[in-house]
Amino acid sequence: MPMSLNIPFDNSYARLDDRFYTKMAPTPVKAPTLIALNQSLAAQLGLDAATLGEPDGVAALAGNFTPDGAEPLAQVYAGHQFGGWSPRLGDGRAILLGEIIGRDGERYDIQLKGSGPTPYSRMGDGRAWVGPVLREYIVSEAMHALGVPTTRALAAIATGETVIRETPLPGAVFTRVAASHIRVGTFQYFASQQDTEALAALTDHTLARHFPDAKGALGLLDGVVAKQANLIARWMGFGFVHGVMNTDNMTISGETIDYGPCAYMDRYHPMQVFSSIDQQGRYAYGRQPDMAMWNLAQLASALLPLIGGVAPAQASIDRFPDLFRSAWLRVFRAKIGLQSEAANDTDLINDLLDRMAQGQADFTNTFRALGTDKARDEFVDPSTYDDWERNWRDRLATEKTTPQERLSEMHRANPALIARTHRIEQAIQAGVAGDFSVFERLVKALETPFAEPGEMIDLTRPPLNDEVVPQTFCGT
Ligand code: AMP
Ligand code: MG
Questions:
Q1: Nearest to 173 by CA among 27, 293, 312, 307
Q2: Which of 212, 246, 393, 465 is packed most tightly, with the most Cβ within 10 A?
Q3: CA 110/CA 72 separation, integer angstroms
Q4: Residue 396 host element (H or E)
């Protein structure tokens, strides 16, 4: 085949030794066709979208041939899943094609997900079906448009093959772009192998890539603590529940990764859970900061052989709660239109959230409506909102901002559009039947979540009773 894609790979992870991965190509698929290609991301990466959309490009994105300069590999890692230790996970259904330097000078991983079995597949088939691929595409691009650090979606490819889950389903391959795929679980793997040399090499690699100004394992830990505190606060501000905050699903770069049973909440409730396998509520909305702290403690203990003492590692992760609280306050102050800081702001925000939970208020629509006469209608008993609004108005009176200025600032913090679970579900159902127009419309709308929705207004509506999706399932 005349394959000339001209992708300027520069594969720093492949230059680590073979303790870190298994070098192998993706497994080809039967009949690849393009479902979606992210033009603006391709441009950011310096890739030619037109070429990628041609048969050679689609073949490369499907894993049917390895472009020049790629050094495909499956990465090894371990992790705590729902608190239980798994000594070896790794890319069981993904292949890192390689890394490229984008137009912005940043280094990006190009990974194919659903690309066939690897030595880390355990009982899995290494494949993905179109549902989780569309879900990750929609939710990760929505996250990016909201301004939250996240892995990105470059492409979705239909494979022309059938994947067997509970039923036969159409197969797909997802192209994920990430600052890196280095996880808390990557460090845990080498720590559990008592391979301090590999741990040190991974630390150096990661520092160079994500924390060029930091020094040593402690500097790395401090950096990850700060990034995760910020990330979780940003999630909370959009009502996002990750759903599977296992240590293998937490990046060192501070990007959101592995969108499985995740959701942006409709009705607010702090104990909202979406995963069908999370029966204890371990990863409920309101527990996410604690779970992040728990994961960071696992990272700290993995790094102990390099840090050389428990006390500094402990001190590093002990900074998380304060860092999180101030990031959270920054996020929620903006959401209620505050520009100054007052001592009672935390109480004022929590009081609103409590009333929203009681009043079964829609998270996104309530914040978007604050300052207008529509807000109170979001509450089962609108008078519970009125009481809060009086206190809020008193607080706003201490600021100089005009109402118009405030409203436009708040509209930059409170999106009109989020990727609602029932809409994702509708896009998947249509996609399984071969119609990707519902998916395309949703992706398009979510590119500008803070704008007035216009003809996309239907996508702002919470689910009707018969549209509610009670649970989302693992992204396999
Ligand atoms: P996740 O739940 O997506 O974080 O995945 C946890 C682990 O299971 C990772 O090591 C995945 O690579 C692996 N895995 C998930 N689904 C499959 C599959 N269909 N085939 C092989 N491995 C899988
Ligand atoms: Mg994972």
A1: 27
A2: 246
A3: 10
A4: helix 382-396
Q: Do the Cβ atoms of 172 and 157 come closer than 8 Å?
A: yes
Across the chain, mean pLDDT equals 96
CB atoms within 10 A of CB 388: 21
**Which pLDDT belongs to residue 3?**
54
Beta-carbon count within 10 A of 71 CB: 17
Residue 2: pLDDT band with limits 50, 70, 90: very low
Expressed in angstroms and rounded, the spacing between residue 143 Cα and the centre of ligand 1 is 22
For residue 48, pLDDT over 50 is answered with yes
**pLDDT above 80: residue 276:** no
pLDDT in tens, 34-45: 999 999 999 999
Q: Is 89 in the pocket of ligand 1 (CB under 6 A)?
A: yes
**pLDDT band at residue 376, thresholds of 50, 70 and 90?**
very high
Q: What's the CA gap between 183 and 166, in Å, rounded?
A: 30
CA distances to 286, 340, 352, 375 from 388, in Å: 21, 19, 7, 11
Q: Find out whether the beta carbon of 462 lies less than 6 Å from any atom of ligand 1.
A: no
Q: pTM score, two decimals? A: 0.97
Alpha helices in 264-362 (DSSP H): 288-307, 310-318, 320-335, 345-358
Instruction: Please tell me the distance between residue 164's alpha carbon and the centre of ligand 1 in angstroms.
Output: 15
Closest CA to 74 of 95, 88, 93, 60: 95
- Residue 268's CB is within 10 A of a number of other CB atoms, namely 24
Amino acid at site 80: H
**d(C-alpha 220, C-alpha 210), whole Å:** 9
> Bridge partners of 212?
none
* Residue closest to 420 by CA, chosen among 356, 385, 469, 351: 469
Most ligand 1 atoms within 8 A of CB, residue of 21, 85, 112, 121 to mutate: 121
Containing H/E element for 203?
helix 196-210
Q: What is the pLDDT of residues 17-35, one digit of tens each?
A: 999 999 999 999 999 999 9
Residue 248 appears among annotated catalytic residues: yes
Q: Is the shortest distance between the CB of 260 and ligand 1 below 6 Å? A: yes
Q: Is 164 helix (H, G, I), strand (E, B) or coil?
A: strand
Q: Does 474 have pLDDT greater than 70?
A: no
Tokens of 42: 């391709």
Whole-angstrom distance, CA of residue 348 vs CA of residue 134? 38
Asked if residue 91 has its Cβ within 6 Å of ligand 1, the reply is yes
Residues 137 and 135: their CA atoms lie apart, in Å, by: 5
Catalytic entry in 222, 248, 266, 362: 248
Report residue 148 as tokens. Answer: 């939250």
**Contact yes or no for 11/107 (Cβ under 8 A):** no
Query: Could you identify the residue written with the tokens 């996309």?
Result: 456
If you compute the radius of gyration of the chain from its CA atoms, what whole number of angstroms results?
23
